[in-house]
Amino acid sequence: MARAATVFELHTSRENEFVDLTPRLRSLVEKSGVTDGTVVVFCPHTTAGLTIQENTDPELKRDILGALESMVPKDRPYRHVEGNAPAHVKAMLLGTSCTLVLDGGRLLLGRWQAVYFVELDGPRDRMVQVKIFPS
């Protein structure tokens, strides 16, 4: 039986930023006692997203944010009255959830992978929802 979703808060400090969620997710898995199953991570925001990406070279995160900016520039004539339409489009490209495999009490991530919350309209107070499903 699946346990209740865990919700945790985070505060971002920049307009665009990667926040590594992997240590928090590993801690939640350990505390849950579940050894095999799936972990679903969900971002309930429309101007932020989630991604699984390389965790070794910080320049890659800058490259990704730069590529998103090139694809979705701020100076386009957007109609959204709040002024953050580019963040909404970028969040749509990233997506709002990640599903991870849990095996033997470990998240099955690749050698260089981490799970990131990607802020696109900060700084803000945000939340992330996590649900662990035993198999």
Would you kindly provide a written description of the structure presented here, covering whatever features stand out?
- Pfam families: YjbQ (PF01894).
- Belongs to the UPF0047 family.
- The protein is built from three helices and eight strands.
- The protein has helices at residues 22-32, 58-71, 85-94; strands at 6-11, 17-20, 37-42, 48-54, 97-103, 106-107, 113-119, 125-134.
- The strands form two sheets. The chain has a five-stranded antiparallel beta sheet, with helices on one face. Strands 2-7-4 form a three-stranded antiparallel beta sheet.
- A hairpin with a 2-residue loop joins β5 (97-103) and β6 (106-107).
- It starts with 5 loop residues before the first strand and ends with a strand.
Q: Any chance you could write out the topology, listing elements then pairs?
A:
Layout: E1 6-11, E2 17-20, H1 22-32, E3 37-42, E4 48-54, H2 58-71, H3 85-94, E5 97-103, E6 106-107, E7 113-119, E8 125-134
Antiparallel strand pairs: 1-8, 2-7, 3-5, 3-8, 4-7, 5-6
From the structure above, extract its key features.
135 residues; alpha+beta; Jelly Rolls; five-stranded antiparallel β-sheet; three-stranded antiparallel β-sheet; 8 strands; elongated; UPF0047_YjbQ-like; YjbQ-like_sf
